[in-house]
Specification:
About 45% of the residues lie in helices and about 15% in strands. By secondary structure, it is an alpha/beta fold. Helix 8 packs across helix 13 and helix 8 crosses helix 15. The longest helix is centred in the middle third of the chain and has 24 residues. It starts with 15 loop residues before the first strand and ends with a helix.
Length: about 500
Amino acid sequence: MEIINSKIVPVVERPVKVIQFGEGNFLRGFVEYFIDLANEKTDFNGNVVLIKSTPRGNLDKYKDQDCLYTLQLRGLVEGKKYVETRVITCCSDAVSVYLDYDRYIALAKEPELRFVVSNTTEAGIVFSADDEYEEKKNITFPAKLTQFLEARYKAFNGDPEKGLVMLPVELIDDNGQALKKCVNQYIDLWNMDEGFKKWVNESCVFASTLVDRIVTGYPRDEIDQISANLGYNDELLNTAEPFALWVIESEKDISKEFPMDKPLADKPGMDVIFTDNQKPYKQRKVRILNGAHTSFVLASFLMGNDTVKESMEDDLVKQFMLDTLHKEVIPTLSLPKEELEEFADAVVDRFNNPFIKHQLLAISLNSVSKWRARCLPSLLGYLEKYNELPTHLTFSLAALIAFYNGERIVDHVLKGHRFGQVYDIKDDSNVLEFFQANSYLESNKLVHKYLSNTDFHGQDLTEVPGLEDLVVEYLDDIKTNGVRKAMEKL
């Protein structure tokens, strides 16, 4: 079969409106999908140029396929199986900063360029005082962006109408403001023009964003059948779940010139939200989606399940999760209850996705810090609101202590036991060393030591009324009767 190219799917000529730092699976399964829809259903009429900002790998596949690729969305929507196949046509070029710096910097002169998207990992938005202006290629992403913005500023003589909108999707708090701070630090470090600094801060927009979609990438085990169904080969084929959320926070309303929300009327489970405050949406995601994971995965694993899908097929675990969300988490959140309930329903569909095999042990990584960030705020919020402890969230804390039971560390991994078989517990060394040293203790002593460890929780949880006694009660029940029988009593 022929590989996908512009002879099979015609390329549409559009002006370059977006440059994108990063050509990985997530951006191609998320940002390009929305832009492609907007091109089809609105007057956005813009293409994307992918920027490869690291020296690893190459862009040969993009050139071979004329930057075309197929995206398949697969999963459940409103409880029903959903598969959508789309050829993404909005990518018009792919440029390597390292192999073709001049062509990269020349993009700054594109008259209709307006948006800069980035996904350079959580470690990408950083400032380094060692970066030198003359290095050009071998510097951090914010430094590269500073040089790109300077080139645009000079190309258009500081025209305030030619400022750019930055849309970072790196998973850090207030990513737009963090990027803006780094750019300003480079301007100061390199003693750049004051007029340029004014243009950056007044004519450019640094939006902070929150993104949510599971992108599963190239379906290696299924590619032969998928290719046969498509009638062509595609080495860039990408897969993702149907659910998608993009929350864009900015001081200036950019919704009219970046209308990614407009084509979604017939796309349930997908949402683009423009706001001046993304924090309630982040709180919703962290406490409902991530909190649900963290609250049930360790107990479910100890009960014999290995994946999220198996957990959702276990009626007891599923009911535990639903009760945790609807009775204990949602009542502590600030967004409208109906909106929160809809989000929780979508979470159930996502966990039931038959196309994703999400291993519980993979999710268990660093569960101590995850429980602090995702579950503890809900537990304390519930206690404050109702003056009693939430039973399911408290039980999840006992299950965490039971999961971390182990007395042997091998190659930085604590070894636990489930039904006579060894499993790997992965966390920071201080966490693993704590449980290695204390797992042998009786429940009351172990729980007291764990809850009073302020490094783990940011506070002494033995001071939370009734928490220590209830965790001890649940942990003893788990040790005596097993997790399943203990959970049944809830």
